[in-house]
Amino acid sequence: KKSKTQMSASATKRLTKEKKKLKSKDWQMTPVKNNLFKWQILVFGPANTPFADGTFILEMTIPAEYPFKPPKVIMKTQIYHPNVEKKTGKMCIELLREGWGPTQSLKDVGDEIVRFLKNPNFESPTDADIAKVYAKSKKQWATTAKKWTSQYAT
Q: Is-catalytic flag, 92?
């Protein structure tokens, strides 16, 4: 069994390689102070969603066991989304839980966050109040989500 130090070394090697391939028009990822285990993600709100025109800031922490364990991603920008806890910014994304496997990469994380913004899961909400608003009036949900986007997303 590999030690934490050996795992961290192999994670560093993998992350260094992945960092070179991180290109997307939908998001940007940057290590914080060149620390490959702490990243800032900027996600540009997808067109035709209430999140369009907003830039959302997320924080990603990579475990020493990466890629065998998924990164932890927290939404730092306040967002009116049924799958984001308002207080903590925790997001309910399948890929970052049971859906994770060692073949996944940081690029997959960025792409999945964009999909998450395009397709909120109102069936399995983290924030039941937001899901209730959506169930009652999709238009009201979209209006509030747009308002929050212009208010909080840079």
A: yes
Exactly one of 22, 42, 92, 142 is catalytic; name it: 92
Average pLDDT value over all residues in the chain: 92
pLDDT at 7 over 90: no
Q: Span 33-50, mean pLDDT?
A: 96
Classify 35 as helix, strand or coil: strand
Name beta bridge partners: 154. none
Q: What are phi and psi of 129, to 5 degrees?
A: -65, -45
Nearest to 115 by CA among 142, 94, 89, 139: 94
Pairing mode of beta strands 35-44, 55-61: antiparallel
Nearest to 51 by CA among 9, 105, 114, 101: 114
Instruction: Give bridge partners of residue 73 from the DSSP assignment.
Output: 60
Is the pTM higher than 0.85? The answer reads: yes
Q: Residue-wise over 64-90: b if at least 16 C-beta within 10 A, else e?
A: bebbeebbebbbebebbbbbbeeeebb
* Tens-place pLDDT, residues 51-75: 999 999 999 999 999 999 999 999 9
Residues ≥6 apart with Cβ < 8 Å to 154:
54, 55, 57, 77
